[in-house]
Each structure stands twice: as C-alpha cells, then as structure tokens.
Amino acid sequence: MGCHFLHNMEEQLQEGIIEPAPREPTGAVIHYIPYHPIIHHNTELTKLRIVYDCSARQTLKEPCLSDLLEIGPSLQPLIFDILLKNRMHKFCLTGDVKKAFLQIKINSQDRDAQRLSWYTVLQ
C-alpha cells in the first residue's frame, strides 16, 4: 500500500492538485487537513484513492474546516431532474469527470487553512 500511496500523492503534486506549502504561512488561518487512503481490492483502475477529511475536529468544541468554509449554491443538478429531462430526448450522453472535486482552485490567502502534512524521500 505504501508504494501506491506515495505514487498517488506524487501524481497529485504533478497534476497541480496539491502544492508544496511555503515555510512561512501567508494566510491568517493555518489548518492541516487529515487524510487517509481508501483501498479498493476489487477494481482494476483505481486501487487506491486519498480521502481528505475536512469534517475532522481537534476537539468537540472546535469547528471543523467544513464548518468554516463559505457555502455557495449547489452546482450539481438534482438527480431526479436529470432523469426526467433525459426521458424527453432520444439519446443521452454521460461522462465521468476525473477527480472533479480535486480540481477546485483555492485563493492564495486561503491555502494555509487547507494544508496537509506529507513527506517524501527526495532522490
């Protein structure tokens, strides 16, 4: 598992999903997001994926990162509406957006609030 985990993190680094944090914080809030691997033994394509837990709390009295983020309108249509609209047409095309929720850009002043701690052995 360790090798797959390191490969997954390196891939996210190369794709710009994660980036090295500066030594000195640039934002007002510094928060490290816990994460853990999910292993799928019965799948061919994605054996391992990393889950970032923005609902984790340091203590019961403190808010989690999800509590502090600004909530905007839902950008995903309701599944019932999609099914109804698809019945009106002869053909329906579907697709899968690769790692859709990992492709969101974060303003530079907010990045320190969404850090994660990870290390790799430099070669």
Annotation keywords:
3 helices, alpha+beta, two-stranded antiparallel sheet, 123 residues, 8% strand
Tell me what you see in this structure.
It is a single chain. The chain is α+β, with helices and mostly antiparallel strands. It has one domain (2-114). 20% of the residues lie in helices and 8% in strands. It contains three helices and two strands; from the N terminus they run αββαα. The chain has helices at 2-14, 65-68, 79-86, and strands spanning 35-39, 48-52. The protein has a two-stranded antiparallel ribbon with strand order 1-2. The longest helix has 13 residues, at 2-14.
Summarize this structure briefly:
The chain is an alpha+beta fold and 123 residues long. The protein has three helices and two strands; from the N terminus they run αββαα. It has helices spanning 2-14, 65-68, 79-86; strands at residues 35-39, 48-52.
